[in-house]
Design brief:
The complex is a heterodimer of chains A (about 300) and B (about 280). Chain A is mostly helical and about 300 residues long. Chain A is built from 15 helices and 2 strands. Chain A folds into 2 domains: about 50 residues, no CATH class; about 230 residues, MetI-like fold, CATH 1.10.3720.10. A two-stranded antiparallel sheet of chain A has the order 1-2. In chain A, strand 1 and strand 2 form a beta hairpin. The radius of gyration of chain A is 25 Å and the shape is globular. With about 280 residues, chain B is mainly alpha-helical. Chain B has a domain of about 160 residues: MetI-like (MetI-like fold), CATH 1.10.3720.10. The chains are: A mainly alpha (about 300), B mainly alpha (about 280). At the A-B interface, helix 1, helix 3, helix 4, helix 5 and helix 6 of A face helix 1, helix 3, helix 4, helix 5 and helix 6 of B.
Chain lengths: ~300, ~280
């Protein structure tokens, strides 16, 4: 890289071309970094700050207090929303893993034909390109009392009367979220499985290992980074959810996200900020815990 | 051999999985052809009709069912998506370009950018609304919502471009410079065609993610609604099959976008191949 550089502002400038060029990366990164600082870091910091402000009926005042925090931890509504959030998160996380792993196994490991596995992955991703809200709404005619699932179950004489519990319950929220987010589990796992050297499995098989043993000692450990990445994606998205919970539970299931929306709606900004900080802390802990299980930097 | 049994079993499971992914859409599509205005959003289909599609375009006589409030919000969402697409693609390209050389603090900046796609919309939306309130700024879809859309889509554009530059052979650029080709011409003739597929992907990501973005927009858009907000507003009241018909149309729109992307991509790959053949000759 010993070519002199005519214009340092040129976007295709290579690096390390002397003292003048060493400033180039900073000039290039400045707009993006500044944007993220102003519109991501500052708002999050503001949220933490406002959670200590004084809430009056319709406004907030910058007088520092712990009152909103005390309200949160002494209110049954907020605490039950906290448990609901954690419960739904765990159920959806488990469901996406159980539903997604066998599919990833098939696509990533068993399909040898590259074109076919790409087609299958694209088929999994296509629903992602349609509107999120429409995807949520599509579950209503599926799960309702006169919905498709009840009709099929009755037509097959599996049930004699429609099941009420399918829609507007916690179950419907979990089903809806599992469908929406399982793609984020399938993708990373299939990616990791696709990188396993087939010779390793071949060797294990030649030495007489059963499929169960091969799965336990080779496939599962090597796919763990994919599971962790998928789990981080799913966790962060589910913990921050509110729209699916509201639309598929008839506003009966309230997650922390739903509490934030209601509080903002009634201009209780300080309470909303407290809930936001609690949610941020939970996410931070969850992501940090997942990153401790697998050292992603080394594995990827 | 055990695996001879496992493979078909997993294949069958994958088919069930795809049914689980697509089932709701199929049902939604079928019910969008329910008769109107008295047919409800459930089975059985009383009579097949395209009533609700006509309803969306305002072609049906007024009935007790209010039309979907989509016309103005659709324009807003499209304008917002184009604005977001342009800004995040430009930011993505120049930021990824910066990462082609190691610089101090690059690790921190990398995480800062990626954080934008990870932090849930409801949190940054709340944060930005608080900032806007405290400095007395009115929230609007083209200001506060726009900056948050870029915060969300810029990381996608950045990662796509980073992947492209990783596979990029810098010696081609250097060869052009050493042959005395001007930097601007080098960019136009060498760099840009090489990174064009990446730019196209970044644009597609940014446009579709912004067009569909809901949770970030909810607290940051103020009075005038974008399309997803208008759709969400109809959830709380009784739903009618017109929203199903609308869902089918938006899905078709997304597929049209994907098709345009695929065509442009094929064209650029074909052109690259033709160049390669010319050089060999």
């Amino acid at each position: 890289m010993n070519v002199p550089l005519a214009t340092s502002e040129l976007t295709s400038a290579p690096s390390g071309t002397g003292a003048r060029a060493s400033r180039v990366p900073y000039v290039l990164i400045a707009p993006g970094a500044l944007w993220m600082f102003l519109f991501l870091v500052v708002p999050m910091a503001m949220m933490v700050y406002v959670s200590f402000w004084t809430q009056t009926t319709f406004k907030i005042e910058p007088v520092l207090t712990l009152k909103s925090w005390q309200t949160f931890f002494s209110s049954d509504t907020y605490l039950s929303a906290l448990w609901t959030t954690l419960r739904i998160w765990l159920m959806v996380l488990l469901a996406t893993l159980v539903v997604g792993y066998p599919t990833a196994l098939f696509v990533g490991l068993f399909i040898k034909n590259k074109t076919l596995s790409t087609v299958l992955l694209v088929l999994c991703v296509i629903p992602f390109w349609t509107s999120f809200l429409i995807r949520v709404l599509a579950w209503r005619p599926m799960l309702g009392k006169e919905g498709a699932i009840n009709i099929i179950l009755q037509a097959l004489h599996i049930t004699s009367a429609p099941i009420d519990a399918l829609l507007f319950t916690e179950l419907s929220v979990v089903i809806g979220m599992t469908q929406i987010y399982c793609v984020f589990m399938v993708g990373p796992i299939a990616f990791m499985l696709g990188r396993i050297d087939p010779n390793v499995i071949e060797a294990a098989r030649d030495l007489g290992a059963s499929f169960g043993r091969i799965f336990r000692t080779i496939i599962l450990p090597l796919s763990m980074p994919g599971v962790i990445v998928g789990a981080i994606f799913v966790s962060v998205m589910v913990l921050g959810e509110f729209a699916t919970a509201a639309a598929l539970s008839g506003r009966k299931v309230n997650m922390l996200g739903n509490i934030i929306v209601t509080q903002v709606g009634s201009l209780k900004w300080a309470f909303a900020a407290v809930v936001g900080v609690v949610l941020t802390v939970i996410m931070g802990v969850v992501v940090a815990a997942f990153l401790r299980i697998v050292d992603l930097k080394r594995e990827l | 051999m055990q695996t001879t049994f496992i493979k078909p079993a997993l294949g069958f499971y994958t088919a069930l999985f795809l049914l689980f992914l697509y089932g709701p859409f199929v049902v939604l599509g079928i019910l969008s052809f329910q008769t109107g205005p008295n047919g409800g959003p459930q089975f059985p289909i009383i009579e097949w009709s395209t009533y609700w599609y006509q309803d969306i375009f305002g072609l049906t006589p007024p009935s007790r069912i209010a039309p979907l409030p989509i016309s103005e919000s659709l324009t807003r969402s499209l304008v917002l998506a184009v604005m977001t697409m342009v800004v995040s693609t430009v930011l993505g390209v120049i930021s990824a370009q910066a990462f082609r050389s190691r610089f101090k603090g690059s690790g921190v900046v990398f995480y800062l950018i990626v954080l934008g796609m990870m932090v849930p919309g409801v949190l940054v939306g709340l944060g930005l609304a608080l900032v806007a309130n405290s400095i007395g700024l009115d929230r609007a879809w083209w200001s506060t919502a726009f900056v948050l859309h870029v915060v969300y889509t810029f990381p996608f554009a950045f990662l796509v471009m980073l992947a492209i530059f990783n596979r990029f052979d810098a010696s081609v650029e250097e060869a052009a410079w050493s042959l005395g080709v001007s930097p601007i011409k080098t960019f136009r003739k060498i760099t840009f065609p090489l990174i064009f597929p990446g730019i196209l992907s970044a644009m597609l990501f940014a446009f579709t993610l912004s067009y569909d973005e809901f949770s970030r927009t909810l607290f940051s858009s103020g009075r005038d609604l974008t399309l997803p907000l208008a759709i969400y507003g109809t959830f709380s009241i009784e739903i009618h099959p017109n929203i199903f018909a609308f869902g089918v149309l938006t899905t078709l729109f997304s597929f049209a976008l994907l098709a345009v992307y695929a065509i442009l991509m094929t064209l650029s790959i074909r052109r690259a191949k033709r160049f390669a053949i010319q050089e060999e000759a």
